[in-house]
Amino acid sequence: MTKALNENEAWVVIKAGRMGHLGCIDHDEPYVVPINYLVEDGRIYSHSLPGKKISALRHHPRACLQVGQVQNDFHWQSAIAFGDYEEVNDAEKRTMVLRQLLERYPELTPVESQLAREGKWEVVVFCLRIDKVTGVAED
Amino acid sequence: MTKALNENEAWVVIKAGRMGHLGCIDHDEPYVVPINYLVEDGRIYSHSLPGKKISALRHHPRACLQVGQVQNDFHWQSAIAFGDYEEVNDAEKRTMVLRQLLERYPELTPVESQLAREGKWEVVVFCLRIDKVTGVAED
Predict the structure, then answer these.
(1) What is the mean pLDDT of each run of 10 residues along chain A (139 residues)?
(2) pLDDT at position B108, please?
(3) What is the reported pLDDT for A32?
(4) Separation between Cα atoms, residue B114 and residue A55, nearest integer Å
């Protein structure tokens, strides 16, 4: 049976995930893109080269991240976190986040890895300040 | 290297997928949820019990579906289709769509399967009339 997850249970799903689907709004149109991420202190961190996603988030900062865990067709959890987009501009914090992302996701594309290692400012480091999490599970 | 997919290539990814991430807008907030779907004549069909997703789509019909195919960390494709939400109310078409969904996804939850088999009107059958598809791939 499908059941709602409470806030703690939904956070467990989000923290355990490696990849989620970021939802944002681009000119009144929803836009969804898979991202790798880190969770720290109620914030979800990620990075990106500038592009459609970053433009959309800068214009309309409200966003969400959906994370799923699927053991099989009858046992799965899906959680979603909502929050406001914020860019990380502090050099020390940027470096720390990029380092953690690279440690966790060594498979990032060579271009991304290179830029991230060099701490190039072309790379946007951002977070969602989460203020709401919900989820459902079937078990 | 990452490259853009043309419209045909993006459709190939979408048609080959079994599960996608639907993006919609709920009270000016993005909302993302995984769905199973069918593609026919430039439309993406799915079904759902009434709830947050259907309420959001009825209020703000613009939506998208992101579909990913991942062979490994260095070979993947991601496509996204944008379109307007429309409910399928014709009884014959509803039955046909539900039957095809059940044939393709026998693992739908017992409740959903039961409702779908009985053609209960509680089940909302809907489509997105796609007018734009894009994608990226790494290979």
Answers:
(1) 93 95 98 96 94 96 96 87 97 92 75 59 91 93
(2) 64
(3) 98
(4) 44
> Would you call B30 and A62 a contact, using CB atoms and an 8 Å cutoff?
yes
pLDDT of A97 reads 94
Upper half-sphere CA count for residue A132 (Cβ side, 13 Å): 9
Residue of A nearest to B134 (CA): A31
Chain B residues close to A107, C-beta within 8 Å? 73-74
User: Which stretches of chain B drop beneath a pLDDT of 70?
Assistant: 107-121
**A15 phi and psi, to 5 degrees?**
-70, -30
Residues of chain B found within 8 Å of residue A102, distances taken between Cβ atoms? none
Out of B2, B31, B78, name the one closest to residue A23 (CB).
B31
pLDDT in tens, A29-60: 999 999 999 999 999 999 998 999 999 999 99
- A contacts of B138 (beta carbons < 8 Å): 109
Q: Are B134 and B79 in contact (CB under 8 A)?
A: yes
A2-90+123-138 topology per CATH? Pnp Oxidase; Chain A (2.30.110)
Q: Which CATH number fits domain B2-138: 3.30.390.10, 3.40.50.1100, 2.30.110.10, 3.50.50.60?
A: 2.30.110.10
Q: How far apart are CA B63 and CA B84, in angstroms?
A: 6
| Domain residue limits, chain B | 2-138
Q: Note whether B123 contacts A: Cβ–Cβ < 8 A.
A: no
Give chain A positions within 8 Å (CB) of B1.
Answer: 111
What ipTM did this prediction achieve?
0.90
Q: Does A2 touch chain B (CB under 8 A)?
A: yes
Contact B21 A24 (CB under 8 A): no
Number of H helices, E strands in chain B: 4, 8
